[in-house]
Amino acid sequence: MRRFSALGRPAQALFLRALVTLPLVSLSLRLRGFHPTRTTLKRRLAHSLAQEDSESVDKQAALAARMVHAADRHGLVHPSCLAKSLTLWWLLGRQGITSRLRIGIRKENGELQAHAWVERKGTALDEPEELDRHYAAFDRELARLPEEERSAGE
């Protein structure tokens, strides 16, 4: 509680939103699957984008990543990397911050493994030890802000 009280208002709001959203996204993935969950989240994104080259936007993105990580550590549910990544992607999108949901695979000890993460400006957010670099990411981007999709199709 002391650590939470020491956070600024924006960080507290992000933490609480992540704390509630993580289990909901996790449950939706389990019951409905990836595409319906992503579609539902996309409907609730901001329609305008923040300035991409702004240092304050980069700081907001880093803060959101830290708060999702903290919500995972301190929450009652510890969801998959896909649920955490979708939650972070959605929180960023709600702020008008562009990011990309990425999914990659690797083969280790004869076993196929998958991992999900969020990238911003080509860099994975909140990935310890650059874990994302150990996976071959699918070329197709799985989630963008609606405005990005319109401009990519033109």
Account of the 3D structure:
- This is Lasso peptide biosynthesis B2 protein.
- It comes from Candidatus Acidiferrum panamense.
- Residues 25-136 form the Microcin J25-processing protein McjB C-terminal domain.
- This protein is an alpha+beta fold and 154 residues long.
- It has one domain (2-153).
- The chain is 52% helix and 15% strand.
- The protein has six helices and four strands; from the N terminus they run H-H-H-H-H-E-E-E-E-H.
- The protein has helices at 2-6, 9-32, 34-42, 55-74, 81-94, 146-153, and strands at 100-108, 111-120, 123-124, 136-137.
- It has a four-stranded antiparallel β-sheet with strand order 3-2-1-4, with helices on one face.
- Strand 2 (111-120) and strand 3 form a beta hairpin.
- Helix 2 (9-32) packs across helix 5 (81-94) and helix 4 runs antiparallel to helix 5.
- The longest helix has 24 residues, at 9-32.
- The chain is globular and about 45 Å long.
- Mean pLDDT is 82; it is low at 145-154.
